[in-house]
Amino acid sequence: MKKNKVYTVIGLMSGTSLDGIDAALIRTDGESYVENLAFVSVPYDHEMRQSLKNCLGKREDIDGGIALAEIDMTRDHAAAVDWLLGKAGVQPADIDLIGFHGQTLFHDPAAHFTWQIGKGALLARLTGIDVVNDFRSADVAAGGQGAPLMPLYHQALSSELPKPLAILNIGGVGNITYLGPDDEIAAFDTGPGNALLNDWVSGTIGRDYDENGMLARQGRVHAGILDQWLSDPYFTSVPPKSLDRDMWDLTPLEGLSTVDGAATLTAFTVQAVAQSLKHLPVAPQNWYIAGGGRHNTMMMEALTEALAVSVAPVEGLGWNGDALEAEGFAWLAVRSLRGLPLSLPSTTGVHEALSGGVLHKVNQ
Q1: DSSP per position, 53-73
Q2: Could you tell me the domains of the chain?
Q3: Is pTM, for the whole model, over 0.90?
């Protein structure tokens, strides 16, 4: 049987938490073969983070500020590529492709609209490497949710694992991949991840996040606010479904102490995950957690209590939970190049398996 070509690829991910750029170097055929080679995480400086935060929630660039932020952000991604290449000891000529997610500003699939900034052609020129970006637009245009896009990658990595299982990514938004014993796959956004909590901590005490859940651990959950949030129709709507980072705001927390707000937001993330059980074919007996939320010991303890089963970081599988999404977009870039599906009806609600992405070649 003829083997597929194996590509050396960089994946770049900047999530809705706005903490920085994850850059992963892998070798893959875009199917079952994945070899992880190197990874770096490059924090945004304060100015870049604030510039991007000012762009969130906008559907158009009224004053040109988004265009300027997009150029600066793309240059930061090129610098992250340089850093990764230096760590791995390889040259741009050794790399076949970059998968460039970009930064999501607004996501409204019901209106067939999603916006991830990031100039693919500029990144190709700056790095000397072909780039695939704009992974979500084709899915949304075809009636899909455009998210989450990691489930097929999770499935590729999990072929030998006992099922059913759930892989939960707690980034800015929470999202789940369900993998069943007969190759069933389902996925959707569960609700908030870290974005609201980070915004609260930043706005009240000027810190970037609640380290280890230390603030939440000292606070009291305000059940009335939690119940108000959980009564949102989103939690009873049938997947596939996805949401924007700013679907909920912090207004209900006005007047609360920093620790009570942190406790209530942490409980919201956890209970939103618990709500997802009603939409799964079978309750998974093992949950594997990726993304920044797995570093929050308070959140992990609360998830274990709410789900009443094994909850563990993906490192227990030999995976890198910080690198997983960056690796996934490298893998998806190869699939885009090969015309393979990035999404399925059961992962985004698109009508049929669909490829996507836009290729920017260096010599164009």
Answers
A1: HHHTT-SS-SSSHHHHHHHHH
A2: 7-144+323-360 (3.30.420.40), 151-317 (3.30.420.40)
A3: yes
